[in-house]
Design goal:
The structure holds three protein chains of three kinds.
Chain A: H1 2-28, H2 30-47, H3 51-55, H4 90-126, H5 128-142, H6 146-156, H7 162-189, H8 192-199, H9 204-240, H10 251-260, H11 268-296, H12 298-305
Helix pairs in contact in A: 1-9, 2-4, 2-11, 4-5, 4-7, 4-9, 4-11, 5-7, 6-7, 6-9, 7-9, 8-9, 9-10, 9-11, 10-11
Chain B: E1 2-3, H1 14-38, E2 47-52, H2 67-74, E3 81-83, E4 90-92, E5 100-102, E6 107-111, E7 115-116, E8 122-123, H3 125-138, E9 149-156, E10 159-164, H4 171-175, H5 183-194, H6 199-204, E11 217-223, E12 227-232, E13 242-243, E14 246-247, E15 254-259, H7 263-272, E16 277-278, H8 287-292, E17 296-301, E18 306-311, H9 321-330, H10 333-340, E19 345-347, H11 373-386, E20 390-391, E21 409-410, E22 420-424, H12 431-445, E23 451-455, H13 458-468, E24 473-478, H14 487-492, H15 510-521, H16 525-542, E25 545-551, E26 553-558, E27 562-563, H17 575-580, E28 582-583
Parallel strand pairs in B: 2-15, 2-16, 22-23, 22-24
Antiparallel strand pairs in B: 3-4, 5-6, 6-10, 7-8, 9-10, 11-12, 12-15, 13-14, 16-26, 17-26, 18-24, 18-25, 19-25, 20-21, 27-28
Chain C: H1 3-31, H2 47-56, H3 63-75, H4 89-123, H5 129-143, H6 146-160, H7 172-175, H8 182-219, H9 223-230, H10 235-273, H11 278-287, H12 291-319, E1 323-324
Classes of the chains: A mainly alpha, B alpha+beta, C mainly alpha.
Chain lengths: ~300, ~600, ~325
């Protein structure tokens, strides 16, 4: 028992140290840095989305209708990016959209990675039939196009709340993660420190959570960043096709309003911002992920530094 | 899979790869230039190009429930009677004259014109009888209108006699409004369907790709996903005939139906001159752009429609008529019309639209008309407090002034009112309905009602209110109401209060039921009119439905190639238009 | 394991996976609220008529019976009849599928060729300014939001310039002419294809370029490249003959899979451009509660993805002799 605790205390600072080290490298990496800066801007947008409705109820992104405007208008002092077809402020919708995008992207990615890591560790560590069953399940889910599955569920069950959509995205995006994690676990299992922990009498659960998990965390973090991108895109595409949560204002929803109400050609000031935001936010997460990938893959790093 | 680490060299030559690249570039460039040259095609002849919002799903009348299919079929299958575009009175169409009713024998006798199908065969009473028997045998949608018809007799090829079980008023206006089918084409279909496990389903699944037509046009080609092309029917009975003072054509050579997924794209096509008419309502947002184009004319037509707020009268809180009446005065219909419809519509006060002059009751009360917000709140306050409602903090203080934030509304048994939701379709389906929901929510909150508007996907909404019937209030509309007021019976007769029934509100009123049944039986038009007026008065007093607004139908046509569109209730896409259209002078 | 046995094992696995998907979907569809009739809002239709219709459409039979019917029909090659169109699902899919294949194969192949070519070139100039600009450009292209860029294409190509058609796949005015020739019709389709193809090209091109670039960089560390260099071969020979063929492997995988998944993204592209393909049909079927059609489309997509996975794995073996099953 004592041994494992020592192993644990030795273990923990090590991975923390590694994380610090990686974080420093990430900030030095140009791709990573630009990704971070972009991300910061969007985070700021999301954080400030609470402000406009406080200024005046006409800036409420969903219900706020400007009493003097009843059709779409271009940018003005009163409405920085103009108004939509019923006189709602596009800028406050854009801010609210940033909040929703972060919420959807990060929760969905987090949930799918937690699921993926748990299943990956379980499958890799347990082996045998558990491994076979879980990996076949992963194969099966992997061939299902997530967007279409969620789309179908949305159509079938009338309408999904944004949280159901998030949960569904998570449910269909874990197999990729768990496969990678499982592969890593298979190689970790052969390492002496696992053997040592087992001899010291650590339970399976303990080995999985205290010894294996910390070692796959950086990889999980990397996958989570990639998953954020895909989750945001899926939610936006879903909303664009008209199957989103009609009570939330997301960027995909805004695009759908432009498109369905037929302002695609009439109102470029309405068409451009949401698309730019979706593209840039996914780009920033993607850049971050690529930078992390470079840092975590020693082979690429060696070349990058040479 | 295992990787064998051995060094291999490339197998493909560099030259070949580059050749592929170059070929790809060349092909691409060629495609672009040649395709650009191929574009911008002029139409030849007097071909009318009509834009539809979606592709017709079928040309089989029994399956056609969508607007696009009906639009195409309208030119192909015709009825015995048409409505006059101005008076809306019935005009003999395939029939020679108006039906003759014999009250003693309860028979209607109808003489047919000399008409032919597009394959040259004569259109006879046998076709009419066949169609009716098909409806009754297969129980197609609409069959219940034929419940009171005992049988159809065909004494000679141009006479049809309908023998009724008992008197009923809607024979001409509802029952007879069926498309007559060619018996010689459908007989075999019906025979095959009869032996199927599900006869009606088999009938509906018949692929009617090349229907034999009795109308001015016949379907020449339907390329799925692209277009439906109709050419002139050489045997059209109405050619050069004068009906209701109009000399029928058609003088155009054909109709080409094209499909446009969104209004945006359709409007662009209209402005570019790629279509001559868009057979769909155009939202007010486009009007300014379209009006700038000298070749485009916008036609405004009245609609036979109703847009309303419905209440669930089966359960609290809307089982109380006082509460419904308070909501009625709080809702500012004028605001909705002015702001959400941008003035293109009118307020509705009865469940029958005003444009339906024969049946609309103009003498109904108009509670709240012309009041401002303060007056509305005061009036609603009076209605509610006299019905026993109270507030923790009333919306009016002792001096009668309006307080800014009223406390929550307490029901007559002094409990706080439970929050209720107003279901609406989502904003992309119909912005006006969704936003009215939000507006109404705000108005109701002004007096302390815990209202909550909730947009919901359309199919789910229907399921919720019509099948599961688990709701408080909703906002919906029927875009194409029949002109005959018989639908009032479906909407409010207590017999129709059941899952999937049309009495969505769960309205029960024995007096109304009695009047509705009487109105259906009443053969004297004047007496029937009085009954329908009384029915409207009852609904206006009990408010199971709160009629909100009636939008104007805006359609756009190009004037540079064709003229002579016939404006009518429910738009210019009527049979008269297609029979009377002419090439414009100096048109291409 | 021999290739034959490998394929047989994979096929068996695929069949089981397919059956599970089929079953899950079937029950999902039948347990969900809402039916095709809830779309028909016709106040003229009475309660009795609606009941007759539900009965005739087979909506009132027990789910178990319906499932057995469904499976039985499926093995006899009947995929049901669409509620909406009233026609066999297989017929509708057969009509739409070629349009999808035409658009997506062309776009994916063109962008793969261009992406690998450019990726190969810039990998040779690693850390140079061109490399950086192009890499960032590819990153941006790769993360562009598809429907949005499709709308921009329409806005620019069809509205601002007015050079390209706004909708559909063919110009009806040309096709109804009896004298229209086949080359003219082909050109007409090509003309309609340009905007959707450009959209797809932009999205896919970026990802192929990135894959090719990193795969090239990885290949360059292999021993045989050093050997080639040591032999004193010219740089472009090493690049094109030694590095590129091996580096192209991941692109092949990606092409195979993106062709399969193209139906997925096809839902978006086809919807915006009104391209009469399978993706648009699926979205349409789903929003109309047309279960048989939606189920058919979805099963087709699942089958294509499964098959593509297998084909890619097998193809890998042909292209890379180092791989053994």
């Amino acid at each position: 028992m004592k041994n494992t605790e020592i192993a644990m205390t030795r273990n923990r600072p090590y991975w923390r140290q590694a994380l610090d080290e990686n974080w420093r490298r990430l900030r030095r990496n140009p791709t990573g840095r630009s990704g971070l800066i972009l991300l910061l801007i969007f985070a700021l947008m999301a954080a400030s989305s609470f402000i406009p409705p406080l200024i005046s109820p006409i800036y409420n992104p969903m219900h706020g209708v400007d009493p003097h405007i009843s059709h779409t208008t271009g940018p003005s002092l009163r409405h920085w990016l103009g108004t939509d077809f019923i006189g709602r402020d596009i800028f406050s919708q854009l801010l609210a959209g940033a909040r929703v995008a972060f919420m959807v992207g990060i929760t969905a990615a987090f949930m799918s990675v937690v699921l993926g890591v748990a299943i990956g560790i379980l499958a890799g560590y347990a082996g045998g039939w558990a491994d076979t069953v879980l990996m076949r399940l992963a194969d099966m889910i992997m061939v299902m196009p997530t967007l279409l599955v969620v789309l179908m569920a949305a159509a079938l069950f009338g309408q999904l709340s944004i949280w159901t959509i998030v949960a569904m995205i998570a449910l269909f995006r874990w197999p990729g993660v768990s496969r990678v994690i499982r592969a890593r676990i298979l190689s970790l299992k052969q390492r002496p420190f696992i053997e040592a922990a087992r001899i010291a009498g650590a339970s399976h659960l303990r080995i999985m959570t205290r010894h294996l998990l910390p070692n796959v965390l950086p990889l999980a973090l990397l996958y989570m960043t990639f998953r954020v991108t895909s989750a945001i895109i899926i939610e936006a595409a879903l909303a664009f096709l008209g199957f989103g949560d009609p009570t939330t204002v997301s960027w995909g929803m805004m695009l759908q309003w432009v498109w369905k109400t037929g302002h695609m050609f009439q109102a470029p000031y309405w068409l451009l911002p949401p698309g730019i935001c979706i593209s840039l936010l996914t780009l920033s997460f993607y850049m971050l992920a690529r930078a992390m990938d470079e840092i975590l893959d020693p082979r690429l790093r060696r070349r990058g530094e040479s | 899979m295992k990787k064998r680490s051995a060094s291999t060299t490339g197998t493909r030559s560099k030259r070949r790869f580059c050749w592929q690249q170059r070929a790809a570039c060349v092909i691409l460039a060629m495609l672009i230039t040649a395709a650009l040259a191929a574009g911008c095609r002029k139409v030849e002849g007097r071909l009318l190009r009509v834009g539809l919002a979606s592709e017709p799903k079928t040309l089989n009348v029994w399956l056609a429930s969508d607007a696009s299919s009906r639009a195409v079929l309208r030119l192909v299958y015709h009825c015995l009677y048409e409505r006059d575009p101005e008076t809306l009175a019935f005009v003999p169409w395939l029939a020679e004259s108006l039906p003759v009713y014999d009250p003693a024998g309860k028979t209607y006798t109808i003489r047919l014109r000399q008409a032919r199908w597009s394959d040259g065969r004569p259109l006879t009473s046998a076709d009419v009888a066949f169609t009716v028997r098909l409806i009754k045998e297969f129980k197609t949608p609409g069959c219940s209108r034929w419940k009171y018809v005992l049988r159809v007799e065909t004494p000679d090829p141009h006479t049809v006699v309908f023998r009724l079980k008992k008197n009923f008023a809607t024979f001409l206006s509802r029952t007879l409004q069926i498309s007559i089918l060619p018996a010689h084409k459908w007989k075999s279909v019906a025979n095959a369907a009869r032996h199927a496990q599900k006869p009606l389903a088999a009938l509906m699944r018949f692929k009617n790709e090349a229907p034999v037509s009795s109308g001015p046009f016949v379907v020449r080609q339907w390329r799925k996903g692209a277009y439906v092309y109709l050419t002139r029917n050489p045997y059209f009975f109405g050619k050069d005939k004068t009906i209701a003072g109009r000399r029928l054509g058609p003088s155009i050579d054909g109709v080409l139906f094209k499909f446009y997924g969104t209004t945006d794209v359709a409007m662009l096509a209209l402005r570019k001159g790629e279509m001559d008419m868009y057979w769909h309502h155009i939202q007010p947002g486009y009007m300014s752009v379209l009006q700038k184009n000298p070749h485009i004319r916008i036609v405004n037509s009245p609609k036979s429609a109703i847009y309303f707020m419905g209440f669930n009268t089966r359960r609290p809180p809307f089982d109380d008529v006082a509460l419904r009446k308070a909501v009625e005065v709080l809702v500012d219909k004028q605001f909705i019309v002015k702001r959400l419809l941008q003035g293109r519509g009118s307020e509705m006060w009865s469940v029958i639209p005003e444009g339906n002059k024969r049946w609309y009751n103009p003498g109904l009360p108009r509670p709240g008309q012309g009041l401002n917000r303060k007056q509305r709140i005061k009036l609603a306050f009076r209605i509610l407090s006299s019905a026993g409602y109270s507030w923790k903090k009333p919306p009016l203080d002792a001096t009668g002034r309006i307080t800014s934030r009223p406390g929550e509304l307490l029901t007559p048994d002094a409990k706080p009112m439970a929050p209720f939701t107003i279901l609406t379709p989502p904003a992309d389906y119909d912005p006006a309905r969704a936003i009215s929901g939000t507006m109404i929510q705000e108005w109701l909150r002004e007096i302390g009602m815990p209202a909550m508007a909730r947009p919901m996907e359309f199919g789910a909404l229907i399921q919720q209110v019509k099948v599961r019937r688990n709701f408080d209030a909703f906002i919906l509309g029927y875009g194409r109401l029949p002109l005959d007021p018989d639908y009032l019976r479906s909407f409010f007769h207590s017999r129709n209060d059941r899952p999937r029934g049309w009495n969505i509100s769960g309205y029960h009123n024995p007096e109304f039921d009695r009047l509705a049944t009487a109105a259906q039986r009443e053969m004297d038009p004047e007496k029937r009119r009085r009954l329908v007026f009384a029915m409207q008065a009852i609904i206006a007093a009990d408010v199971p439905y709160l009629p909100l607004y009636l939008p104007t139908l805006n359609e756009a046509v190009r004037t540079d190639r064709f003229t002579g569109w016939v404006p009518m209730l429910d738009g210019i896409g009527n049979r008269w238009s297609f029979c009377l259209l002419k090439a414009a002078k100096g048109g291409k | 394991m021999s290739l034959k046995r490998y394929i047989i094992r994979r096929l068996a696995e695929m069949a089981i996976i397919f059956w599970i998907i089929q079953t899950v979907l079937f029950f999902l569809f039948h347990l969900a609220p809402g039916d095709p009739l809830s779309r028909m809002v016709d106040p003229g239709m009475t309660h009795e008529e609606e009941m007759i219709l539900t009965e005739q459409l087979g909506l009132r039979e027990p789910v178990g019976t319906q499932y057995l019917y469904f499976l039985g029909n499926f093995f006899r090659g009947r995929f049901g009849i669409s509620f909406h169109y009233g026609r066999p699902v297989a017929r509708i899919i057969a009509q739409r599928l070629p349009n999808t294949i035409l658009l997506f194969t062309t776009a994916v192949i063109l962008s793969a060729l261009a992406g690998t070519w450019l990726g190969k070139l810039i990998s040779w100039r690693k850390e140079n300014r061109t490399d950086k600009i192009i890499t960032v450009g590819a990153l941006v292209c790769h993360t562009l939001f598809l429907p949005w860029i499709a709308m921009l294409m329409l806005w620019f190509g069809a509205f601002k310039l007015g050079w390209f058609p706004v909708t559909g796949m063919i110009s009806p005015e040309l096709w109804i002419l009896p004298q229209a020739t086949a080359p003219e019709k082909a050109l007409d389709i090509a003309w309609h294809m340009i905007l959707p193809m450009a959209t797809l090209f932009l999205i896919h091109f970026g990802s192929y370029l990135l894959i090719m670039r990193s795969s090239m960089l990885e290949t360059l560390t292999e021993d045989y490249i050093f050997t080639a260099r040591a032999k004193g071969l010219p740089e472009n020979v090493i690049r094109d003959r030694h590095a590129a063929p091996n580096a192209r492997l991941p692109v092949v995988t990606s092409v195979g899979l993106s062709l399969a998944f193209s139906i997925n993204g096809g839902a978006l592209t086809e919807t915006v451009f009104s391209w009469p393909g399978i993706g648009r049909e699926l979205v349409f079927a789903v929003s109309n509660n047309d279960y048989p059609l939606a189920l058919g489309c979805f099963l087709l997509i699942a089958a294509v993805v499964l098959a593509a996975n297998l084909v890619v794995d097998v193809l890998y073996g042909y292209l890379d002799p180092r791989i053994r099953y």
